[in-house]
Amino acid sequence: MTEPFDLLLEKYAALVVRVGVNVQPGQEVVINALPEQADAARALATEAYRVGASRVSIQYDDPHLQRAAVEHAPEELLGVTQDHHLAQVRAWGDSKPALISLTGNPHPTLMEGLDPTRLAKSTPIDLIQQVMPLITTNKLAWTVVGAPTKGWADSVGVADVVRLWDAVATAMRLDQADPVAAWQAHVTKLRARAAILNGHRFDRIRYRGPGTDLTLGMAPGSMWVGGSLENEDGVEFVPNMPTEEVFISPDWRRAEGHVRTSAPFFLATMGALVEDLVLEISDGTITGATAARGEEAVRAQFELIPRSRHLGEVAIVDSDSAVARTGLVYKDMLFDENVGSHVAWGMGYTSAMDGTLGLTPEQRVAEGLNQSDTHVDIVIGSPEVQIDGIHADGSVVPVTRGDVFVLED
């Protein structure tokens, strides 16, 4: 490692707490982690108290418990969350804690060999239904960050967890002399890029390349966003660290074509690695899905979760990506979605469709914003995939060429 681990961890925690969720004096902080990520979780807790948090809680989840449940628990209790946990999450709507979630699966093959139907049923939909509205409407300041573990390092194929921490540090700009200033400049760049796209008011966006030809239509309120957001109280936060994207919520009814993933991804709710996924999309609905690996898991999620067959996000990531410069495939969507341009099935975000924040979920769907209890990003971009903006009159404007953002104001 290029610097002592404790120093790197301190810089990491300071960036996540002060920029990622921007903890305010007197605010509560909730950290979601796995047992193998305890070092990172403790560093974040210490930093949160250092900046004035009133209370910090670390909530550990253990995927081994989920596997045991899939193998042995009564079917009627699969995916059922205990009442006290649901009540705790519901209370967040009033207490508004800063929410930090750690990613980086230490056991990527743990769920292999399980019955996919029982595995799909073990997804805690009741808990997701409580968390999703708080996240997608930015009622809370929240962020997702990586915390390297040995299992994650092994799955990525690097020498050890030290090397993975080095890569994560590069992706998060911790290798810069002033990481906070570097992030401020980066957020400014992404906001400027979103403003350029919004200035064009494209009616459609088209992705074309090997195995991919997809056209996505915009709703009247669709708008590009990137970098940072603001929560209900006007506190700025960065929801994903790292982030290299500008994204928009398209009209879920206006998607046509087919896509092939250009990077593998880990379908977290199913504990499955998915490779070479091909989707067929017609009239806004995913009508076909095949994959070299993980196809059964994808199909099981589509069958389990309502409205998961519709798209909720389309994003642009170009070659100027700190994550891409590390040269790794992370098998973790937080990082891999920032390697290339992507789309997501499932939930769309109110921050990326103007006028939808105060609507009910049913009203949002009627306006074109998909609502679902999942959100799965898949990378479809590469230097061979070109992105065009299409105006309502049919005129076409290049957005990327050779994985470079070329659109001008």
Describe this structure in words.
This protein has 409 residues and is an alpha+beta fold. It folds into 2 domains: 5-171, 3-Layer(aba) Sandwich (Thermophilic metalloprotease-like); 179-405, no CATH class. Helices cover 33% and strands 24% of the residues. It is built from 13 helices and 22 strands. An 8-stranded antiparallel beta sheet has the order 16-15-12-6-5-20-21-22. Strand 8 and strand 9 (236-237) form a beta hairpin. The radius of gyration is 20 Å and the shape is globular. The mean pLDDT is 95.
Spatially, the strands of the biggest sheet line up as: 16-15-12-6-5-20-21-22
Shape: globular
Helical content stands at 25-40%
Low-confidence stretches: none
- Total helical segments: 13
Whole-number mean pLDDT: 95
Q: Which percent band covers the strand fraction? A: 15-25%
- What is the total number of structural domains? 2
- Strand tally: 22
Radius of gyration: 20 Å
C-alpha end-to-end distance: 42 Å
Task: Provide the fold topology.
Layout: H1 5-20, E1 28-33, H2 38-50, E2 55-60, H3 63-72, H4 83-95, E3 98-103, H5 116-121, H6 125-136, E4 142-146, H7 150-156, H8 161-171, H9 179-200, E5 204-209, E6 212-217, E7 225-226, E8 229-230, E9 236-237, E10 240-241, E11 246-248, E12 255-260, E13 265-267, E14 272-274, E15 278-282, E16 285-290, H10 295-304, E17 311-316, H11 322-325, H12 333-336, E18 342-346, H13 361-367, E19 375-379, E20 386-390, E21 396-401, E22 404-405
Parallel strand pairs: 1-2, 1-3, 3-4, 4-10
Antiparallel strand pairs: 5-6, 5-20, 6-12, 7-11, 8-9, 11-17, 12-15, 13-14, 15-16, 17-18, 18-19, 20-21, 21-22
Helix pairs in contact: 1-2, 4-6
